[in-house]
Amino acid sequence: RTSLNFLSKKIYVFFIQTLLDTISQCIELTILYVLR
Q1: How far is CA 31 from CA 13, 23, 24, 27, 34, in A?
Q2: Transmembrane ranges (predicted)?
Q3: Terminal-residue alpha carbon distance, the chain
Q4: DSSP structure class, residue 14
Q5: Which of 2, 3, 23, 34 lies most in the core, judged by the most C-beta atoms within 10 Å?
């Protein structure tokens, strides 16, 4: 039970980080495109 909870927490954190990375990349691309 504890390990499963720990695992799901890790997955959740990983998901959030990936999402933030993707969003920041999109923002950078958009800025580059607009400033071009």
Answers
A1: 27, 12, 10, 6, 5
A2: 12-35
A3: 52
A4: H
A5: 23
